[in-house]
Every structure is written in structure tokens, then in C-alpha cells.
Amino acid sequence: MAVAILASTTTVNFAGDWKSINTALNAALGSSLVSFLGVVGTLLIIFSALKYVWDRRRGGQGNHTHLMWTLVIGAILAVPSVVMPAILTILDAIVNLFLKILP
Question: Looking at the predicted structure, is the pLDDT value of residue 24 above 70?
Fold first, then answer.
């Protein structure tokens, strides 16, 4: 039965649905706050990855714990505007490919 439900659907659009939720979130919290948090989270992710690579290049071991926690905090801040759309776009592609394969 679940396969029949999936087969009747031609495509899914998780990213588009998230855009509706994100619009409501921006209206509730203020779009400038959500955008600012997304930028800060993205910058945390980029700079922590660059610092880790730089420390490894200089011959050190690199601080794995610092990298992990900075990535987690950056991802949490960037979830509404950066991380979720990226994840859902990839998920859209995978599910739509699966739906095309079904008879």
C-alpha cells in the first residue's frame, strides 16, 4: 500500500515546503535576526574548518574537539537558512530519483 501511495506521487518538493516554514519563521522572529544567525553560523563553519586545516598543515594534530563543537554550534545557527535547504534539496533529488525508478 505504501508503494502505491509513493507511486501515485510524481515528484516531491521538501525544499519548497521548507521555504514556506522558513517564511513563517522569518515573519515571527524577524527576517534580519534569522539571516544574521545564518550568516554567523555559516562563518563559524567555514572559519573552524579553515583553522583546522591550517593547524594540520603547520604540523600539529589539529583540535578535533574544538572543530566538532564549533561545527555543531555553527550548524544549529545556520539550520533555518542554509543547512535545511541544502539537506532537503539533496533529499528531494534522491526521493524523486527513487520515484522515477518505481514502476
Answer: yes
If you count them, how many residues does the chain have? 103
* DSSP-derived 3-state class of residue 30: coil
Answer whether residue 27 shows pLDDT above 90. no
Look-up of cell digits 554550534: 73
Candidates 56, 48, 92; CA nearest to 73 is 48
- As a whole number of angstroms, the distance between CA 91 and CA 16 comes to 12
- Return all residues near 81 (Cβ < 8 A) that are at least 6 apart: 22, 34, 35, 37, 38
- Residues contacting 99, CB < 8 A, separation 6+: 6, 7, 9, 10, 11, 12
CA distance 44 to 48: 6
pLDDT of 82-98, one tens digit each? 788 888 999 999 988 88
Single-letter residue type at 28? A
Give the C-alpha distances (Å, rounded to integers) separating 17 from 82, 84, 89: 15, 11, 11
